Structure formats: structure tokens, C-alpha cells
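Deliverable D5.2: sample structural annotation.
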Amino acid sequence: QGGGHTADMKEKPTREPIANEAHNGLKNLRGSIAMARTSNPHSATAQFFINLVDNDALNPGGADAYGYAVFGKVVSGMSTVDAIAKVKTGARLPYADVPEKTVTIQTVEILPEPKEEKAK
């Protein structure tokens, strides 16, 4: 999970929380990117996570009726995401489970949606 803290674990300022949009038809599948939140379904601000496996329990109607809103997907470099997931973690107070080595996402690219091919 990332997006909420600087590399030295200082909390980043955020804007107001957004409404939960998990009913957008996108699923928490391996490689999808979703908004992290508290137990309040409308509390997402800056934190996100990349699903390492299919997480049906995070979809609306799963373990939580609201679900976690998917807004993107990894289209290239999932092996890098898997390598990040293997980084050893430990306590760094006040947090109990953070990477021992700093992991930083350097670039993110928003790609245009693919055009649907016209039927011939």
C-alpha cells in the first residue's frame, strides 16, 4: 500500500475524502490498482494498493458490502510489483509492517483507453 507517506514515513497532506466508487464494474483482480480506505467506505484520500492476487472479497458485496474502488491496472511491469511485494518488512514505529528498504514509485503513466475495433 502506498500514497499516504513520504519516503521517511511522514504523513502526506491530502484533500477531502472521495465517495466510494467500487460499483464501477471493475474488479479487484491481480494487477488492478484500488483505493485504500478505513472502515468508513467513503474515506479514501491518497492511499492505494496493487492487488497481487484476485481479491474477490474486496469487491462490492464481498467481505464489505461497499468494496474497494478499482481505478487502474498494471499493464507492464507486474514482475516489478511482485519483487516489491517480496521486500522484507518490519516495524517502524508507529507502524508495524513497513518495508525495511524504501520503495518508491518513480513514474506512473495514464494511458488512453483502447479504442474498440469496429466490426468488419
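Annotation notes: The CA atoms of residues 37 and 44 lie 5 Å apart. The first helix runs from residue 78 to 85.
The annotation will be released with the project's public dataset once the embargo ends.
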